[in-house]
């Protein structure tokens, strides 16, 4: 297999983890390149369900190194819980010690980051509907050059000096901007000591020579979290996450540059979902939306929130192909449409006031309430496709839908997912 990046192409939860797990069969090294435990990634193997948040979805295999890359943010107690939960499902502790690696350059989510995220969500002027995992505040400090990196935890002398410069300002921010409790240096050092203990079995201090070896000799799979429409630059700003889930993001966050990537698989659901606030032009607040949610089991893996549901939006999808740097498509959850009489794809937007039809994605989300989707309607196939093993076995109406999607998006659908299990996959 060529070095591949798996990118969410909608608002997250497209089924990236299932695709990553499948492609990981052919890879030697799997690396997450952005995001944190805001992600909720489900892998189903022989009916057994595993939920990952930060650990790369390739971890269930033997002999594959899984790395939490430099572009990620880590909340160590969440990572510990994630590991413990997977151990409870039968994976050995030693397996993680052998195969899980963490970049010393990844940033740490401190308690004050989750305090600020929680406060902003509870009382902020713009409610984003975040996962309250402290993601935005951690990335803010990273870019503000006042973050704490994994490597800082292992150098107590320089950590102490660093805290002298950042804590004073952080405490002022906590108290006077957010009306939150400040932290003493002792409290922060104790928190860091706890995090050091949690992370120490996994931190890869030899990452430079190891990554050089993987880059030169091994097959690499890059795992994205979230999706292009939640990207900090290209998503529905400001209703976005604080990192870059695009293929471009992999070129930065995995520490081996864009030339190590040969193909970019964009993962799309055959319809669309979104959790949290923000525009969603094809959202269905009706029985059809409810039916998608209940058949698709559309409830968040990380927060349990019901996901908003709607038809496939080809306008945003074409935009995601461009901005996400996608070269092919994995289409998931096609089976969820099995019992729909009619299936729709939004092919353009109509301005409700002027009647103007637009085919490009309007990036200012505050204008989205002016638009309504213009749909192309397809006949459903009204049969169970969850056991189809090849493209030829799919019903004719499903093939018509798939062909049209390919035509609109201008790239090939190479993977079709017809169920949550590893086996329920068609490689085209
Ligand atoms: P991710 O965040 O993109 O990895 O996706 P999530 O794990 O948050 O959500 C996808 C959900 O759909 C999970 O419950 C998966 O087990 C499930 N899933 C993935 N692919 C398929 C599919 O083709 N059909 C069905 N019915 N479920 C799927
Ligand atoms: P996976 O990897 C779906 C959403 C949140 C919120 C916005 C910002 O499972 O696809 P954040 O906590 O990141 O600051 O929240 O982004 N969000 C996700 N939605 N799937 C995810 O991850 C998400 N990660 C964040 O709901 O709207
Ligand atoms: Mg998810």
Give the arrangement of secondary structure elements.
Elements: E1 4-8, H1 16-24, E2 29-32, E3 41-45, E4 48-52, E5 65-68, E6 73-74, H2 76-88, H3 93-99, E7 100-102, E8 107-108, H4 111-123, H5 135-143, H6 150-153, H7 156-177, H8 185-199, H9 207-217, E9 220-223, H10 247-253, E10 263-269, E11 272-274, H11 287-296, E12 308-310, E13 312-313, H12 314-323, E14 328-332, E15 342-351, E16 357-358, E17 371-379, H13 396-409, E18 413-417, E19 425-427
Written account of the structure:
The protein is of the alpha/beta class and 428 residues long. It has 3 domains: 4-104 and 204-265, Adenylosuccinate Synthetase, Chain A, domain 1, CATH 3.40.440.10; 107-199, Orthogonal Bundle (Adenylosuccinate Synthetase, subunit A, domain 2); 268-427, Adenylosuccinate Synthetase, subunit A, domain 3 (Adenylosuccinate Synthetase, Chain A, domain 3, Alpha-Beta Complex). Helices cover 34% and strands 19% of the residues. The chain is built from 13 helices and 19 strands. The strands form 5 sheets. The chain has a 9-stranded mixed sheet, sandwiched between helices. Strands 13, 15, 16 and 17 form a 4-stranded mixed sheet that branches. Strands 3-4 form a two-stranded antiparallel ribbon. Bound molecules: guanosine-5'-diphosphate (GDP), 6-O-phosphoryl inosine monophosphate and magnesium ion. Residues 12-13, 39-41, 301 line the site of magnesium ion (MG).
């Amino acid at each position: 297999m060529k070095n591949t990046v798996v990118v969410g192409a909608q608002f997250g939860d497209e089924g990236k983890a299932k695709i990553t797990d499948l492609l990981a069969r052919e890879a030697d090294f799997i690396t997450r390149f952005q995001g944190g435990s805001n992600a909720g990634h489900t892998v189903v193997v022989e009916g057994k369900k595993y939920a990952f948040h930060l650990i790369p979805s390739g971890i269930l295999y033997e002999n594959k190194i899984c790395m939490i890359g430099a572009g990620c943010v880590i909340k160590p107690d969440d990572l510990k819980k994630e590991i413990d939960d997977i151990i409870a499902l039968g994976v050995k502790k030693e397996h993680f010690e052998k195969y899980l690696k963490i970049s010393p350059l990844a940033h740490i989510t401190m308690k004050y980051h989750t305090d600020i995220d929680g406060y902003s969500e509870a009382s902020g002027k713009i409610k984003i509907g975040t996962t309250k995992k402290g993601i935005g505040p951690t990335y803010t400090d990273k870019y503000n050059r006042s973050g704490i990196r994994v490597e800082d935890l292992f150098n107590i002398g320089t950590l102490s000096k660093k805290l002298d410069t950042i804590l004073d300002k952080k405490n002022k921010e906590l108290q006077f901007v957010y009306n939150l409790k400040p932290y003493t240096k002792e409290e922060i050092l104790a928190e860091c000591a706890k995090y050091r203990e949690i992370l120490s079995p996994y931190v890869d201090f030899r990452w430079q020579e190891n990554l050089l070896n993987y880059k030169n000799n091994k097959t690499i799979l890059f795992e994205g979290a979230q999706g292009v429409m939640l990207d900090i630059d290209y998503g529905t700003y400001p209703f976005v996450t604080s990192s870059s889930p695009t293929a471009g993001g992999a070129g930065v966050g995995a520490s081996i540059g864009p030339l190590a990537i040969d193909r970019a698989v964009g993962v799309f659901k055959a319809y669309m979902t979104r959790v949290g606030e923000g525009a969603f032009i094809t959202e269905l607040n009706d029985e059809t939306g409810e039916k998608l949610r209940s058949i698709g089991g559309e409830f968040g893996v990380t927060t349990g929130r019901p996901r908003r549901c709607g038809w496939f939006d080809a306008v945003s999808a074409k935009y995601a192909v461009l901005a996400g740097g996608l070269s092919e498509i994995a289409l998931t959850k096609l089976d969820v449409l099995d019992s729909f009489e009619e299936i729709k794809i939004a092919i353009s937007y109509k301005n409700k006031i002027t009647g103007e039809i637009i085919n490009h994605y309007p990036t200012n989300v505050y204008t989205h309430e002016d638009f309504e989707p213009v749909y192309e309607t397809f006949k459903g196939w009204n049969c169970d496709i969850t056991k189809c093993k090849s493209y030829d076995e799919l019903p004719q109406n499903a093939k018509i839908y798939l062909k049209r999607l390919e035509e609109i998006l201008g790239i090939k659908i190479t993977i079709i997912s017809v169920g949550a299990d590893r086996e329920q996959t068609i490689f085209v």
